[in-house]
Amino acid sequence: MKRTGVFICHCGINIAGTVDVKKVAQELAKHPGVVHAEDYVYMCSDPGQNLIIQAIKEKNLDNVVVACCSPTLHETTFRNTSKAGGLNIFRCEIANIREQCSWVHKDKSSATQKATKITKSAVEKVRRNESLEAISVPVTRRALVVGGGIAGIQAALDLGNSGFEVILVEKNPSIGGHMIQLSETFPTLDCSQCILTPKMVEVSKHPKVKLMTYSEVQDVSGYVGNFKVKILKKPTYVDPDKCNLCDECTKVCPIVVPNEFELGLTGRRAIYIPFPQAIPASYTLDIKACPGLMPIACGKCADVCDVKAIDYDMKPQIIEEEVGAIILATGYDLYDKANMAEYGYGKYADVLDGLQFERLCSASGPTKGQILRPSDHKEPKEVVFIQCSGSRDPENHCAYCSKICCMYTAKHAMLYKHHVHDGQAYIFYIDIRSGGKGYEEFVQRAVEEDGVLYLRGKVSKVFEDKGKLKVWGVDTLTGKHIEITADMVVLAQAMRPAQGAQELAKKLKLAMDKDGFLAEAHPKLRPVESVTSGMFLAGAAQAPKDIPEAVSQASGAAAKAVTILSQERLYHSPTVAKVLSNLCTGCGMCVQVCPYEAIAHKDGKVEVNEVLCEGCGTCSATCLRAAIQVKNLTLHQVHEMINACLGG
Amino acid sequence: MAKIEDLKEEARKLLREGKIKYVIGYAAGTNGWMASPIFIKKPEDVEKLVWDPTCVHNLSRFLVDEKRRKEREKQPDKRPVGIFVKGCDSRAIVVLLQEKFIDRNDVYILGISCEKGGVVDEHKLARKLEGKKPKKIELGDKGQLVVTTANRKAEFPVEELLAERCLECRANFPVISDIMSGEKIKRTVEKPFGSVEKMERMPKEERWRFWKEQLDKCIRCYACRSVCPMCYCDECVVDSINLAVSADTTAEEKADKVKWIQRSAESSENFVYHFVRAIHLAGRCIDCGECERACPLDIPVRFLNKKLEREAKELFGYEVGFDPAQPSLVSSFRDDDPEDFIR
Amino acid sequence: MAEEFEPKIVAFLCKWCSSAGSDLAGVSRMEYPPNVVPIQVMCSGSVSPLYIFSAFNKGADGVLVSGCHPGDCHYIKGNYYARRRIHLVKKLLEFVGLEPERFQMSWVSAAEGTKYTQVIKEFVNELKPLGPQNKLRRNP
Fold it and tell me: Do B296 and B177 fall within a single domain?
């Protein structure tokens, strides 16, 4: 039988004051397999640890049990002690007789009995422990960042500046995300493009960053430190190296489609540059809008291109990359306007969403910074802003708060007043959430300096009447019905995960929350890590957030990725699940329950990816055949521990 | 009552063309009245197949044996096996598919609808006939059971003779099949869990006495396990005889194995055995009733399974054996699973 | 005078929440009855029904399974599987007539030393009037 030594710590009087440690030692000495049992005043002291090392050698111990404080405190200490004595660290177990016994009981006899049982239970466990070594895998020391908005740009820059190669993938023709569409940013009212474009340039010129625009991640396989990524590079049909931005092609292109960058407020040609500062600075031929790539179909753009940048033969490419960490910064889109029938969205030209209003305010926007009604290009004199449009409405729309709308609506109203001095801005709100540095002051400024009228209540209906928009609502503070005849209505639409982000999450097997945002590993303590080891979250992909929050999370995610990339090898606890393949029938229940996608079907059985497994054991409780068990906490071990706990 | 002539014709054709390995079906029983399983390899033997309310067996259990056989053979015949299934049996096949134990291509399913009938309960029949042996039992046109004995022909309402599970059956036609005979008639069942509910209404101590008395009888012959198509594990966890043994496995290590229950058929051990079986069948048992029928001591083991079937439905909205793609009961959850029992 | 009956309870505590919560109770020197012997498991999701049946069979008067609150599981969703599995076990045990008080589940977070103490106190108090659990106990 395996030889076990038991060491009972007095912890001064912390344990010995309530537990008769001598008695525990006597009882344990009688337990089968225990060849040595002693007590000492402070086991964790050097002399205490030496006692253990000495006993291992003299008594030829196979296992060590230390009955002392919680394993969270000294498990590592005593495992290292055992190692110093020549044992594998997993040949040492802790019996927690302080926090879970001596400190919570008064009666000495029953506390002693309980301590004896806890210690016996640890003896039964340790004698069935396997000697294990940490699992280690090499690391591919480069990263992938998905999404080229502010969060993705920041993450890529931080990683690049830390000295790691980064691939930054953006599905649109240019990086910049939604931030590049904004006019000014709260609470400082600095110009969004002015602060973002330098970062865009920096990331595109960064020697460590490989920028892939108009590209999409198609498939990810592998695991932390060792991902294999397939990226689809869509053809732009324009060679960015040759294109000199002369803009002749758009002049001849006969096709006009709604301009996505301007949110449909204007049109663009089938060949286009999304916005003047686009990066890469090049045109893209939108194949869906183009009448055909054959010169016979149209071919006008190629004809006028002096530098022969247009190449109709460009093909989609699949590019394979290997990376060690992935940051998802897939961003957001606004909640679909089609859902807001009550506010007349889509029906009335002068009902806009927040991003459209940003474009109206923007100096580079369709109206060159003049706020004009889309319907008749007249200056609106009364504008109603509706907050929580689609947010905080579990019955009909999204249950959550989109977080940024209170602030940007205040900004919108303020910008409106700065443009139209004699105009009146009304804001319907449920309540104002202005937590953030300088945010509350900003809202106050809107009210006090710019005379924005805040009305607490929800708008029930918006409808057109004689060229104006009637807004019906209730002021819940006075209880009075309100009717405003407005020239324009702006909806602070809820934020949703970006289009395509959920499909991507499914491909990456990333968990999503109930609203479709990417789920963090722990809501408080691991907010930038995804559930999947080696994949991190940044920006609005995880939840609605404003620019500073997105930027901080991106830097956080980059720092987390560096914890992996800075290692030559990754080490992982070896107490992972193990398949007993003679018992496994391949039913796959364990595959379904595994929170880490660490179990996969193979040849009619299952196999565990030890690098992904965290050893939670949910698989082992689910398996009907005991065919998958966690090393060093097997069903058998628990069975014997139960026996010991019940005095058997 | 469904006619199986078209199924027989199909079976004959498949055997003649060599598309299936053999057919598992029912033949007239050797004890005079109850049908027994038959394996038919030759088209000319198809004539032996019968269908009547004595076709009690869940033949899908034989798919487990078939799989084992294939695993043993060096060059297995991989053609599908033809199998006759009732509604409940077909749902067993769905669970076997769900658990990837068999592949859809392994079976050619010949489904029969029980229509308004079902299968008879031996005990009910014996009581009705006062010991006389029936010669023939058929489902009559008016939904009654027609029983012919040596000297008379009697008619009984189905409720008096059918197995309780048939009276509680909510899907009395195959949910999966390659060819099906009979109509997809849904019987109106007022209380699909009536028998379980009745027991739930018993006071706790009375319930305990009932189960104690029942499980005291258990001799742990494991007939319930042997007959169950879901008990296809190579080794039952309660046995734990299997051990990875290598050259340097010591005798002590061999002896040191988990013993969830002792081998003795003692009441408390029997409880553990039946608990383990019930919990392992939760979300998997399709209520074919074979465990109870096979029990030589007439222990109503089916109730334990039925109880959990009911809880799965009521607590988690989980129905067994309809969708091979759905995750298993215990390998899935809903965010709002009830938790009023948790402190 | 006959000694008061002291129930024997086995508690399966998840490492990250409930065991940590019980450690907190210790650090805070909260007193509770010594009837419970804890077994630390990685996650409440790893508690096999076999453990529970076995504990009763080996003479436990009560069994407790305790894990992280929904949404807080260290392993993301282990406690949701536990919730479903344990519920089924509870229904089964009650169906054969075991007293429902004997098998309990609780959510105890790492910060809830007080709650852990409370759960144990109440559990012991509820078990005392029931006397020893002999229904599923193996004959000695």
Answer: no
